[in-house]
Design brief:
CATH architecture: 3-Layer(aba) Sandwich
Number of strands: 7
Shape: globular
Largest sheet: 7 strands, mixed
Number of domains: 1
CATH superfamily: Alpha/Beta hydrolase fold, catalytic domain
Bound molecules: D-malate
Helix content: 40-55%
Number of helices: 10
Oligomer: single chain
CATH topology: Rossmann fold
Order of helices and strands: EEEHEHEHHHHHEHEHH
Low-confidence stretches: none
Length: 263
């Protein structure tokens, strides 16, 4: 797992942030102010941002789960609050399956527990083909309209930034992630086993994982809370960081856990 780019900012309880597809750790730049309250750990999954692609080997979502666990080890965290955006949420549900003792609280943003259906799987295959044929722009341009509200797309600090993250993603990173998402299992049966405080966040205009789906996710996790982020689509932490950060800080305040430094 060498070469994974990691940033650690701030002090106090740790919050590990796991980015979505096809993004990188800078999707969390609006969460910078949280470093005044928490120890923020952000990192680039293999093949995205500043992290090199994974070495060839068994793929699947589990490879990314290994990376999250490795980042926690490297930053001295036996356990922490884990927050995942979309694909980051898929990874964290896999992490809950494998290593629940590493999770103090869970924040699931603009994500879902279900596996891909037939149509989504076909879409992943088309995405892989486009990337391999040098037509990644078609894939990424098509995604942009689904990821952001029209207003966010026009805003250079949001739409321009998302385009930059997409441009930085490596071919291998894109292909590995598409294949991993395509093959991920249904995590729905896991939801009733989640026994840590859980918050579901969703952009009020998220078309990929709409608020109604988020409410279904919330109701399947015992005691989970939900907050709808106004004026945001699928990339709620970047599109409305003020509301996103407020919801996170309220969640920490309402579910005290204690310190999570290395034992
Ligand atoms: C993401 O934001 O991580 C992706 O939209 C997830 C997906 O394609 O299923």
């Amino acid at each position: 797992m060498s070469g994974v780019a990691i940033d650690v900012r701030g002090e106090g309880e740790a919050l590990v942030l796991v980015h979505g597809f096809p993004l990188d750790r800078t999707i969390w730049r609006g969460q910078g102010p949280l470093a005044g309250h928490l120890r923020l750990v952000t990192f680039d999954l293999p093949g995205f941002g500043d992290s090199p692609p994974a070495t060839p080997g068994p793929g699947g979502l589990g490879r990314y789960t290994d990376v999250v666990l490795d980042v926690m080890d490297r930053t001295g965290l036996r356990s922490a609050t884990l927050c995942g955006l979309s694909m980051g949420g898929y990874i964290l549900l896999d992490l809950w399956r494998r290593a629940p003792e590493r999770v103090e609280r869970l924040v699931l943003c603009d994500t879902r527990a279900e596996a891909d259906g037939e149509e989504a799987r076909r879409g992943r295959d088309q995405g892989v083909a486009r990337v391999r044929e040098g037509r990644r722009e078609e894939l990424l341009d098509g995604m942009l309209t689904k990821l952001l509200t029209a207003a966010s797309r026009e805003d250079p600090a949001v739409g321009g930034h998302v385009r930059k993250m997409m441009a930085r993603a490596s071919e291998r990173g894109l292909v590995d992630a598409l294949q991993a998402m395509k093959g991920r299992p249904d995590s729905t049966p896991l939801l009733s086993t989640i026994s840590v405080p859980t918050l579901v966040l969703v952009g009020s205009e998220d078309a990929l994982t709409p608020p109604a789906d988020a409410r279904r996710l919330q109701s399947a996790v015992p005691g989970a809370a939900i907050s709808e982020i106004p004026g945001a689509a699928h990339l709620s932490p970047l599109e409305n960081p003020e509301a996103f950060n407020r919801a996170l800080l309220d969640f920490f305040a309402q579910s005290p856990i204690g310190c999570n430094d290395e034992a």
